[in-house]
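Hey, resending since the last one bounced:
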Amino acid sequence: MNDHHLIMGELTDYLTGQTRDDTHDERYLQKIARMLILEKRYDRSEIRSGLIVDVQADARTACVPVAFTIALSGRAAMLIHYGPGSLVTRHRPALALARLAAADQIPVVVVTNGEQADILDGLTGKVTGAGLAEIPSKEQLEKRLKNHVWATVSPERAKMEARIVMAYEVDDRCPCDSTICVKEIDG
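The C-alpha cells again:
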C-alpha cells in the first residue's frame, strides 16, 4: 500500500472549510494553503484549489487536477503542481499544465512535494528558485507581472502539451490514484 493514500480520518480544508480525507498528500496541500495565506499574503479569493484541466490527446481525454492556481488582476499568474517524490520529474508536466490551464501561458510554475519546491519560469522552464521559502509572495508576484508580456498558447502547442500531460500525469500515475478521470473518445 502506498502510504500517501492512507486515510487517517478527516480534516477541514483551510481554504474552503470543507471536510476532506486526512491523507499525507492532503496534509501537505493544507500546509501549502496556509503558507500561501499566512506567509505569502495571498487573499483566499486569489487562490483556487483543485482546478480541473481537461486534456485531450488523440482518442483519449482526461480530467487532471492542479493543486493551486493564483489569479491576480483576473489572470492566472502562478500554478502550483503537487506530487509526492522527485521534483525534477514533475517539471515538464507542470509546465505543460501551465500551458493548458488558462488561455495565456501561466508565468510562474511551482513544483512541490510539500517539503521541497522548485520555482520555474513558465515560458522558458528555467528554475528561478528552490525551496518553499522561494515561492513568490503576492508582492513579489505582482512585481514580476508589471513587465510581463502575456503569451497566448497556440492550438498546435496546446496539442503537444496535452500529450505530455497525458504521458506523465495520466499514463504514468499511481494505479490507486482516483483523482484523474480518463475517457476514450468513440470515433
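Strands lie at 10-12, 19-21, 47-57, 60-72, 75-82, 108-112, 117-121, 127-130, 181-184.

Sorry for the duplicate.
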